[in-house]
Input
Amino acid sequence: MDSRDKRSNPQLQKALCYSNVERRHASSPSVIVIGGGFAGIAAARALYDASFQVTVLESRDRIGGRVHTDYSFGFPVDLGASWLHGVCKENPLAPVIGRLGLPLYRTSGDNSVLYDHDLESYALFDMDGNQVAQDLVSKVGQIFESILKEACTFPISLPSLFLFHSFWLIEIVFVTHQNITNILFLCAYFFVDLCCRLVQTDLVRQDFREDMPISRAISIVFERRPDLRLEGLDYKVLQWYLCRMEGWFAADADTISLKFWDQEELLPGGHGLMVRGYLPVINTLAKGLDIRLGHRVTKIVRRYHGVKVTVEDGRTFVADAAIVAVPLGVLKSNRIKFEPRLPEWKEAAINDLGIGIENKIVLHFEKVFWPNVEFLGVVAESSYECSYFLNLHKATGHSVLVYMPAGQLARDIEKMSDEAAASFAFMQLKRILPNASEPIQYLVSHWGADENTLGSYSYDMVGKSHDLYERLRIPVDNLFFAGEATSFEYPGSVHGAYSTGLMAAEDCRMRVLERYGELDILHPVMGEDPPISVPLLISRM
Ligand SMILES: Cc1cc2nc3c(=O)[nH]c(=O)nc-3n(C[C@H](O)[C@H](O)[C@H](O)COP(=O)(O)OP(=O)(O)OC[C@H]3O[C@@H](n4cnc5c(N)ncnc54)[C@H](O)[C@@H]3O)c2cc1C
Output
């Protein structure tokens, strides 16, 4: 509740004079949710349904946060999240999307080397506009997978190494009936060979004991396995795979942790584009909630009896508890002051978790002039120079290509004006399709510079612990934390953000129950009945 409004209202002023206990008995417990993205809205919805008084304070003039469906072209285009990662009933968002009957266009199945794309429908070009042969792209894809496997696993386990040598010796001794001198010679040879391999294994292990950037690990693999080294066009295609990987983490390969890059849990069912955009989902969740747009929180004071939250223009809001669901980038920037300060372990988690940048430059054309594939790629000497365009025409029927730079490239493009950024993307397209016609409209996102986000999504940086997501989630007194960066299982995703919102709501409900003993009036956050399961509408099965 806005405390300035209360000062001008005598009845409310009287109500304010009640002790906390009386106030809580007079009404249900209250909570302030800070941030109206998927995490915040999920938490607010759950607590509202559990009979809490909920106020959402959102800094922007819209809800959704990094889910931002734009309609200025006359049809929906997502400038933030657009895929449901894990098209399956286990996805926490599946019941909501299924009930709304929203169609999904599946761009990949499980375990694709290109994450959210299959290698079935693509066209890669070099900088001179020559299309790369499909079998070369597939071959390099397999090599890329081998490189990652080599980088992350020991070449041979010790027991299998001993077994391998023993079998070999036994076979030679008994099958070929060597004389004793030869057998001794062979034994000596195998002993030396075994020692060399053990030393090599141990060296690799030592290398891997210390975390390192994925880019360095790849160089080490090349030293150990020269047969995996590529040159010429093959090398450029390999750089393009790296570029796709960097897009997935929104970070450059020299900052991604080798130890943890593959620790995130991928739900089954592949990846599906939300054909009509994500907005209908969050709008449905937000229905009936008290959401205050344009309320940028600057200070959060926590005391035993509750929290006081201050917004930019000085107004304050009070409640029994608060859920902080602002992006990691905003927490890192210290633009919200916590009083008392957050504990050291929480501040360290905020500092140590990485936040990457990925942007979208959406180009709308008069008509389609590109090949009928799901994405177009540009291969080059370095992953920085590689790029790719998502062809929305395949999924939505609209003549739209989406250029998606990540990491340093995204940071560099953010320094340009929107017009220059759109021209840059168009130039890349012209390289591969020289007859491309000019776009009639464009949209450019700025997730790194936008003060409401300050980054696109979280990732594991080199040398940091993987439990930072969990540490970020753990409550501090009556402050609860939600958001994609607090999701240990599904960081950097909409369903991850959504599930942390539900978790924070449940933690909050339990704490209020423990503290105030108001068991009867509060319903469980997740609802008593299991959600009705409605199958997802998926095209391109
Ligand atoms: C380009 C891009 C592509 C992506 N693609 C996908 C995808 O395809 N699939 C997928 O699953 N995920 C994707 N993601 C990630 C996904 O969008 C996020 O993980 C998710 O939306 C985060 O939700 P959230 O609630 O944690 O944070 P947000 O959505 O960022 O919500 C936080 C809210 O807090 C508000 N806020 C900030 N500061 C304050 C303040 N001081 N006071 C009050 N309010 C404040 C913000 O305005 C915002 O509304 C993508 C993200 C980006 C940027």
Remarks:
- The radius of gyration is 27 Å.
- The CA atoms of residues 13 and 400 lie 55 Å apart.
